[in-house]
Amino acid sequence: MSDWRDNIRKTEPYVPGEQPQEGNIIKLNTNENPYPPAPAVAKLAAGIDTDRLRLYPDPDVRLLSAELARYHGVRDEQVFVGVGSDDVLAMSFLTFFNSDVPILFPDITYSFYIVWAGLFGIPCRMPAVKEDYSIDINDYMQENGGIVIANPNAPTSLYEPVENIEKIVKANQGSVVIIDEAYIDFGGESALKLIDTYDNILIVRTFSKSRSMAGMRIGYAIGNEELICALKGVKLSYNSYTMNMPSIILGTESVKDEAYFKATTDKIIKTRERITGELRDVGFKVLDSHTNFLFISHKDVPALKIFEELKKQKIYVRYFNKPRLDNYLRVTVGTDEEMDEFMKVLRDIIM
Ligand SMILES: *Cc1c(COP(=O)(O)O)cnc(C)c1O
User: Fold this and answer.
1) Which tens digits make up the pLDDT trace of 126-150?
2) What is the topology classification, in CATH, of domain 39-256?
3) Cis preceding linkage at 155, omega within 30
């Protein structure tokens, strides 16, 4: 007798940070933005014509794709929009990583990559990051079925100069190189400028961090038209109407307000730099962050202890129980008030 259990697809799901439902917490554990989305988004949200919810949304998400194309100075055909960059990245793995040769990504990086590789049966190899947690670009000069690099990287917060990204893209023109730029708006130069020179680079971005819209689920990819066309083909072979109508119109509105976007990202960068200094003053090692979070380790007090003590006082940060990460904490940069409270509680803990 056959057993249906033998035919279940085996998965090792990604473990996201906690989303506590209790009130009165300081939430610094999933890199959300502490500031609201652009004011025009709230205004438009209040006026959404619910009669339009009767209709299917535009499967090609043309309104938002066109606005993003304008913002980035590319053609509409070079933009692919999805339900958060997780959706865009998953679709990209499915579309481009279809070789028997292993794909490459660093051993310390966004932990969803290995989950998708497992789910889609993609062989992978994970070169170790260096002692200082930066990637070694020479590791990406070997034969591969594709490459994915988060730049800046998570959870290390480190940025790899775009010149080095170009070396990787240039040396691997036989495979697709995905650059996950979830945090690029908080520092560093984008690899976007490479898309006209190389047809094998795909840039992936999200509205979840710098645009304060994690709850809306919007992500996108930019690249050569042929790459985008292939992505659309796979997406439309899977589910046509993934992006809902409110996300399309509210996402579009967010892109229009460049001044607000710049003001909030600048504010986060300023807070980040101030808190980096304060943490170093009290004995923390803090990696040089180009993101909206800090990757920190104390010289005396174990990370796990700090994590648990903070949680008792309703301050949530992220702890990873993995080799080389288990004495570090990843702390999202919140508002100045939140970070001052965090520092106050933290100083008591490490005393
Ligand atoms: C947050 C994050 C994502 C996912 O973002 P969503 O758009 O919310 O799905 C992707 N990659 C990295 C490196 C991230 O940190």
Assistant:
1) 999 999 999 999 999 999 999 999 9
2) Aspartate Aminotransferase; domain 2 (3.40.640)
3) yes
pLDDT digits 0-9 by tens, 200-225: 999 999 999 999 999 999 999 999 99
347, 309 in Cβ contact below 8 A? no
Of 110, 156, 294, 295, best ligand 1 pocket probe by most atoms within 8 Å of the beta carbon: 110
pTM of the predicted structure, to 2 decimals = 0.97
Return the CATH class of domain 21-37+259-350. alpha beta
30, 32, 208, 217: which to mutate for ligand 1, most atoms within 8 A of CB? 208
By C-alpha distance, which of 190, 108, 198, 120 is closest to 155?
108
Handedness of CA 71, 242, 235, 32 (dihedral sign): positive
Among protein residues, the one whose CA lies closest to atom 1 of ligand 1: 182
